[in-house]
Amino acid sequence: SCTVLQIDYNGTATTFFVLPDPKKERELDTSLSVEILKKWANNVHSDRAMVSIPKFSISATYNLKEPLSQLGITEIFTDHADLTGVTGQLLKLSKVTHKAVLTVDETGAEAAGATAGEAIRTSLPPNYTFNHPFLFFIFDTKVNAT
């Protein structure tokens, strides 16, 4: 079992922060799938909440030459590449890299408030504290990709 918090960004990206029950972390880790993420996205409800997530930053660099080649984009890496429309010179690509960075801090948490309907609450909003290992996923709702 786990608690799932969805925070939407501008556009079609959303992040799921998943706080597993400490006794069931391994069970959750092995049962996650794209279908589970889609199920969470389709069953979300909007509400106000007090959320405490530690500040963190994570980055990764990806070499895209192999994935591009698997998609059939190969000529751009050969001597037959024609990039003269871009640079005016005879060039070919030797590699393509993508760097992704995710930073969660006070600004991100403040900008990520979810709003409920117009009903007036008679109790305090729920409190979610991410104070033990948790997972997060960035999900594009337009293309259903993580």
Automatic annotation (TrEMBL):
Source species, domain of life: Eukaryota
SMART domains recorded: SERPIN (SM00093)
MF (Gene Ontology): serine-type endopeptidase inhibitor activity
All residue ranges annotated as the Serpin domain in the record: 1-146
Transmembrane segments: none
Cellular component, GO annotation: extracellular space
UniProt key word Hydrolase: no
Coiled-coil portions: none
UniProt KW keywords: Glycoprotein, Protease inhibitor, Serine protease inhibitor, Signal
Protein's UniProt keywords contain Cytoplasm: no
Family: Belongs to the serpin family.
Protein name as it appears in the record: Serpin domain-containing protein
Organism expressing this protein natively: Micrurus carvalhoi
